[in-house]
């Protein structure tokens, strides 16, 4: 379940005492002398006193790898801030930007400079200066870390050399030429570029200690797989699943309806490459079915994501696939709704509500005409029955999906690092919401004969999601159905709306039918007391804690404020997703939480990599202080601090148990 830290030792009970001495015996294998115990205690105690590391929060990445990696490489502007701190009296703003660009994209920048330099000698000189600047920058950026932590962040092949340069002593006199020789030799041996590249990545790593991804890595954008690969390599992170992420987890875990959804969304956003090329899933059977039953249909044209128009033939093919998989999805929803009455989704039995003779539908008590229908595989007498071909196609797709090694790796990582919510350093991180009613009371949901609400309900959801993931051959058990419920159900903490109107959005012109009513959480979260109540529900301190949400794009353009309830609630979905930037008016929010407090960063737009390289780094992110710490926060005030303190307590016990008689 979501994190909680406890030492697991019960001093009072006899059994606990046995456990403790067994643990201490084990511990004494590692710390087999008094000196080793003492050294470790001193080491841990001094770590507790260091300033807390910087946490970096991002959310709603939606497959936008380029924008994401830019934010990651510049630490939401943090790299530039550090460069500015060190070099403001020695460099112009342009030089600072240029140096920042080198730190973000060292390989490309080095190549660019090499191509521009007039002579080898000039290039060597440039390398020499940059090495010195990098060492200075790293020395500053690492000042709140232990030496051992810094060592882990250094490029392996150069650790010894860099440490010599970092911990210079006696520079003015005896060793001056020694340090100069080191740098000269690096250049002479052709290692300068490698070293500068390594130092750049070290800097990127030092400015952010820990990353939180508050959900929605997948869907809409073109490269979620590259985001996943980047996250897998990242030094320290956690993930709070978004509704789109659980849709992918659900598909991998055996939910055919989740699978139909992910393919439908990929078709809708012209991203079928993710399915076919990135994950190697064979779409041929689906294409054959689509060609047989469907034609052009403007409602199912893919959304363009680049300025280059799609070739007509390709567009037509995607349009057909889009319809084929959407109809399979609507059919697959029906049996789940029927076998799980407590999902309370009868209104979503849409295919059964259609009047096929008159092309009309009655939903939520209102009758609408249908347009652009594509019901050629629907039997009006049994509208939700899959054709044999459709059943075969979805089975084949599932088989192919579950055999994708890359997807397996990515989904395993999502499960390993992910939770439905996370309590971290006193804050509650959650993608969507905590379902509440208009009075602000936790909403209850029945699952399998028992009723759950608030934190208990979320824990139950996570329990079933993990269960489904560990039985991927099960396709219609409760656990698998509940993963789909998390995507679209009324009391889902990830969806946060009463119903998803996908069918209406495709087939009904009247936009009032498209509206998706939000959970009252979304207006109640403006209220300080309500936020405090929710923090208490999760055993967090209502005074110092914050809730950090993603999921709902903040319409900055319309004056909406991402900082709500006096700073208790921070919503960081600003629209990495290009598809949503029109609505939000900005290009994404990120949040930084360092030892001085919390700052929200609003990114005005993400410069393309090429632009950053040619014209220097973008200075366009705007920072807003959310909360300032009265006293600088130290590691001892954090989650990690609590764990370290427990280790110290244990070592102290070991001292008296073993060594002090
Ligand atoms: O913009 P699209 O592609 O029609 O998607 C709309 C759908 O996405 C959702 O907003 C869910 O996605 P988000 O988590 O990104 O909001 C649904 O509620 C809605 O039906
Ligand atoms: Mn979302």
From TrEMBL:
Pathway: Carbohydrate biosynthesis; gluconeogenesis. It catalyses: beta-D-fructose 1,6-bisphosphate + H2O = beta-D-fructose 6-phosphate + phosphate. Its cofactor is Mn(2+). Pfam families: FBPase_2. Keywords: Carbohydrate metabolism, Hydrolase, Manganese. HAMAP family: FBPase_class3 (MF_01854). Belongs to the FBPase class 3 family. This is Fructose-1,6-bisphosphatase class 3. It comes from Salinicoccus jeotgali.
């Amino acid at each position: 379940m979501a994190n909680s830290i406890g030492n697991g030792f019960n001093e009072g009970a006899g059994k606990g005492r046995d456990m403790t001495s067994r643990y201490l015996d084990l511990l004494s294998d590692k710390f087999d002398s008094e000196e080793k115990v003492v050294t470790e205690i001193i080491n841990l105690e001094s770590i507790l006193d260091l300033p807390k590391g910087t946490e970096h929060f991002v959310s709603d990445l939606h497959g936008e790898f380029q924008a994401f990696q830019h934010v990651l490489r510049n630490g939401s502007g943090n790299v530039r801030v550090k460069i500015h701190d060190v070099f403001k009296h020695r460099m112009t703003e342009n030089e600072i930007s240029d140096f920042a660009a080198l730190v973000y994209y060292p390989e490309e920048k080095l190549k660019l400079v090499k191509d521009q330099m007039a002579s080898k000698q000039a290039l060597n000189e440039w390398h020499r200066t940059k090495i010195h600047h990098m060492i200075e920058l790293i020395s500053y950026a690492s000042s709140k870390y232990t030496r051992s932590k810094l060592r882990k962040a250094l490029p392996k092949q150069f650790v010894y050399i860099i440490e010599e340069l970092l911990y210079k002593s006696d520079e003015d006199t005896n060793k001056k030429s020694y340090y100069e020789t080191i740098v000269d030799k690096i250049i002479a041996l052709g290692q300068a570029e490698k070293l500068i590249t390594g130092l750049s990545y070290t800097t990127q790593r030092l400015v952010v200690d820990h990353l939180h991804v508050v959900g929605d890595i997948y869907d809409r954008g073109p490269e979620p797989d590259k985001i996943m690969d980047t996250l897998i390599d990242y030094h320290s992170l956690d993930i709070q699943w978004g509704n789109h992420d659980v849709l992918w987890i659900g598909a991998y875990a055996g939910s055919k309806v989740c699978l139909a959804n992910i393919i439908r969304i990929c078709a809708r956003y012209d991203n079928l490459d993710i399915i076919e090329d990135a994950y190697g899933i064979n779409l041929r059977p689906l294409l054959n079915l689509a060609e047989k039953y469907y034609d052009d249909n403007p409602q199912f044209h893919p959304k363009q994501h680049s300025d280059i128009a799609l070739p007509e033939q390709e567009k037509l093919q995607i349009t057909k696939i889009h319809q084929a998989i959407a109809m399979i999805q609507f059919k697959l929803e029906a049996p789940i709704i029927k076998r799980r009455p407590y999902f309370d989704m009868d209104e979503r039995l849409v295919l059964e509500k259609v009047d096929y003779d008159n092309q009309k539908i009655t939903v939520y008590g209102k009758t609408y005409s249908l347009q652009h229908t594509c019901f050629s595989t629907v039997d009006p007498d049994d509208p939700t029955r899959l054709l044999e071909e459709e059943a075969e196609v979805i089975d084949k797709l599932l088989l192919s999906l579950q055999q994708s090694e890359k997807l397996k790796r990515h989904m395993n990582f999502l499960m390993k690092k992910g939770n439905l919510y996370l309590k971290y350093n006193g804050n509650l991180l959650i993608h969507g919401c905590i379902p509440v009613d208009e009075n602000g009371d936790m909403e209850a949901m029945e699952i399998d004969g028992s009723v759950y609400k608030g934190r208990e309900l979320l824990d139950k959801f996570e329990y079933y999601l993990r269960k489904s993931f560990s039985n991927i051959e099960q396709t219609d058990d409760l656990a698998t159905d509940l993963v789909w419920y998390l995507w679209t159900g009324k009391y889902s903490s990830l969806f946060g709306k009463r119903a998803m109107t996908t069918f209406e959005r495709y087939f009904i012109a009247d936009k009032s039918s498209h509206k998706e009513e939000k959970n009252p959480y979304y207006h109640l979260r403006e209220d300080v007391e309500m936020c405090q109540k929710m923090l208490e529900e999760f055993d967090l301190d209502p005074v110092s804690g914050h809730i950090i949400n993603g999921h709902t794009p903040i319409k900055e353009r319309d004056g909406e404020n991402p900082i709500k309830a006096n700073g208790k609630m921070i919503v960081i979905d600003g629209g990495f997703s290009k598809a949503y930037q029109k609505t939000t008016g900005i290009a994404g929010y990120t949040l930084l939480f360092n030892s001085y407090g919390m700052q929200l960063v609003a990114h005005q737009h993400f410069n393309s990599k090429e632009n950053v390289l040619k014209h220097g780094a973008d200075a366009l992110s705007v920072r807003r202080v959310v909360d300032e710490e009265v006293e600088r926060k130290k590691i001892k005030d954090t989650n990690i601090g609590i764990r370290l303190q427990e280790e110290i307590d244990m070592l102290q016990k070991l001292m008296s148990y073993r060594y002090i008689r």
